[in-house]
TrEMBL record:
TM segment ranges: 20-43, 55-78, 84-107, 149-171, 191-213
Chief location: membrane
GO cellular component: plasma membrane
Organism domain of life: Bacteria
Single biological process term from Gene Ontology: D-methionine transmembrane transport
Name of the molecule in the record: Methionine ABC transporter permease
Record NCBIfam families: PRK10782.1
Cell compartments where the protein resides: Cell membrane
Organism: Pontibacillus chungwhensis BH030062
Species classification: Bacteria, Bacillati, Bacillota, Bacilli, Bacillales
Topology versus the membrane: Multi-pass membrane protein
């Protein structure tokens, strides 16, 4: 017997809110970690502004290590760390921790890719005018790559939405948890369909907003 969506709707709305909050918080912390990490990968590489071979190898290795672990495995592997940070391994707050571990290295790579697209001639011109490495980073690299950064952050956000759904396997809350608890374990097809539609709507909204902001920034 299928659940009555009319009476079940408040739970669906609550799960949607949990997904949005989960993704937003995880994205914020992932950017705070991934942005400086991505910048460091660019400036410390060979012929970079602050070339430092050993540091680059360490940072590159850390990013590669975490990016090589599938999210569902990472989710389980860092459960002790999750419990230490938030005091529990289930719920929305607990899901944020592995989401950050998963997305921060990904964002770092996306930031690295965006900054490497900046025209070297613009950087050389800034250097010839006596700009310091930090001035070049904040006044040349980031402004020049801003449109690309917005698109890449949009991609990372969509990846987070998908990962947040997988967090439902360990009781992470949100639409993923709802889909697994009712759509998979109880064979409530109508709940599964609604959660899929809502996830698609969230992804489409994020992509549309990201495209709009990127175009607006590019015109300046």
């Amino acid at each position: 017997m299928q659940v009555d969506l009319a009476t079940f709707w408040p739970k669906i709305l609550e799960a949607t809110q949990e997904t949005i909050v989960m993704v937003a918080i995880a994205l914020l912390f992932a950017i705070l970690i991934g942005l400086p990490l991505g910048i460091s990968l660019v400036v410390t590489r060979k012929n970079g502004l602050l070339e430092n071979g050993p540091l680059f190898k360490v940072l590159n290795g850390i990013v590669n290590f975490f990016r090589s672990i599938p999210f569902i495995i990472l989710l389980v592997a860092i459960l002790p760390i999750t419990r230490f940070i938030v005091g529990t391994s289930i719920g929305t707050a607990a899901a944020v921790v592995p989401l950050v571990f998963f997305s921060a290295p990904y964002i770092a790579r996306l930031v690295e890719s965006s900054l490497l697209e900046v025209n070297p001639g613009v950087v050389e011109a800034a250097e010839s005018m006596g700009a310091t490495p930090w001035q070049i980073i904040y006044r040349v690299f980031l402004p020049e790559a801003l449109s690309s950064l917005v698109l890449n952050i949009t991609i990372a956000t969509i990846g987070l939405v998908g990962a947040s759904a997988m967090a439902g396997f360990v009781g992470g809350g949100g639409l993923g948890d709802l889909a697994i608890s009712y759509g998979y374990q109880r064979f409530e097809t109508n709940v599964m369909i609604v959660t899929v539609i809502l996830l698609v709507v969230i992804v489409q909204t994020v992509q549309t907003l990201g495209n709009y902001i990127s175009k607006a920034v590019r015109r300046r």
